[in-house]
Amino acid sequence: MQIIFTIAELRKRLADERAIAFVPTMGNLHEGHLDLMRRAREHGSYVVASIFVNPLQFGPSEDFDRYPRTLEADCARLQGLADVVFAPSVNEMYPAQQTVFVEPPAIANELCGASRPGHFRGMATVVLKLLNIVQPQVALFGKKDYQQLHIIRRMAAQLNLPVSIIGCETVRAADGLALSSRNQYLSEAERGEAAFLYRTLQGLRQQILLGERDFERLQQQGVEALAARGWAVDYVAVRNQSDLRTVTGAQRELVILAAARLGNTRLLDNIEVCLAG
């Protein structure tokens, strides 16, 4: 496995590759990332991972400065899974102030975007830059970041990018907690409570499967259940899978999404609901 730090060197290394599968990450890798890497090998004969903590997608009061940077350990975990790790510096990715951005669709201002203004603009911009640098045939993203995946798919389709975007199922701990690099911020007591977010979504999903269609009531129920246990809730929302819009008719493929803070740690999760025809 080769570790490359510059765009020029990476482009030279990939010039003759024609079946590249790409997994972009911010590092501090966990089993969810490694699952993406294993799946990438199913889609390409040459696998590239990137490790880059992107300043454009962090707000001024967010955790950019303290986000864990563990390149040596990450590369050790990627041995046997990736052919190349691209680990650029901020100056390599942004040698001058970035003044050209991807403007994401309006849904970027809802859900996570409502409390993180500019986040998806910065995310989409760096993903487009990485796709242009690596030029993969396939790129893989986890479904845990459901809104992010939706925006990337929309960007790839509307900008006619020659890449297939593949969403992979969320990898969970034994108690159901979605794996995330930010889980390490949790105290021992908070870690014990954290799986309640997923259990809440499971309960709402079961009510929908049993015929409940008052989604406003379900959303409020989810908020109240979390708040009663000390969570600071950003949102609980039932949306269409296809466009993340509010459910208005007889749509059959839904997703329940939630984001909430436990102490100082912001956790997000989702669960899909497919109704019988």
Radius of gyration: 19 Å
Count of the separate structural domains = 2
> Can you summarize the main beta sheet?
6 strands, parallel
Q: Report the order of strands and helices.
A: EHEHEHEHHHEHEHHHEEE
Beta strand %: 15-25%
Poorly predicted regions: none
Can you tell me the CATH superfamily of the largest domain? HUPs
Number of helical segments with 4 or more residues: 10
- Named CATH topology of the largest domain: Rossmann fold
Which strands sit side by side, in order, in the main sheet?
1-4-3-2-5-6
How far apart the termini lie comes to 47 Å
Relative helix content: 25-40%
Look at the structure and give the CATH class of the largest domain.
Alpha Beta
Query: What structural class should be given to the helix and strand makeup?
Result: alpha/beta
Q: How many β-strand stretches? A: 9
Shape, per Cα inertia axes: globular
Q: Report the average pLDDT across residues.
A: 97
CATH architecture of the largest domain: 3-Layer(aba) Sandwich
Describe the protein's architecture and organization:
The chain is an alpha/beta fold and 277 residues long. It has two domains: 2-168, 3-Layer(aba) Sandwich (Rossmann fold); 181-268, Pantoate-beta-alanine ligase, C-terminal domain (Pantoate--beta-alanine Ligase, Chain: A,domain 2). 36% of the residues lie in helices and 21% in strands. It is built from ten helices and nine strands. The protein is globular. 34% of the residues are buried.
Summarize the SSE layout with pairings.
Layout (H helix, E strand, L loop, with lengths): L1 E3 L2 H8 L5 E6 L5 H13 L2 E6 L19 H8 L5 E3 L3 H4 L18 H4 L3 H16 L3 E5 L3 H13 L5 E5 L19 H7 L1 H14 L5 H13 L4 E9 L12 E10 L2 E10 L3
Parallel strand pairs: 1-4, 2-3, 2-5, 3-4, 5-6
Antiparallel strand pairs: 7-8, 8-9
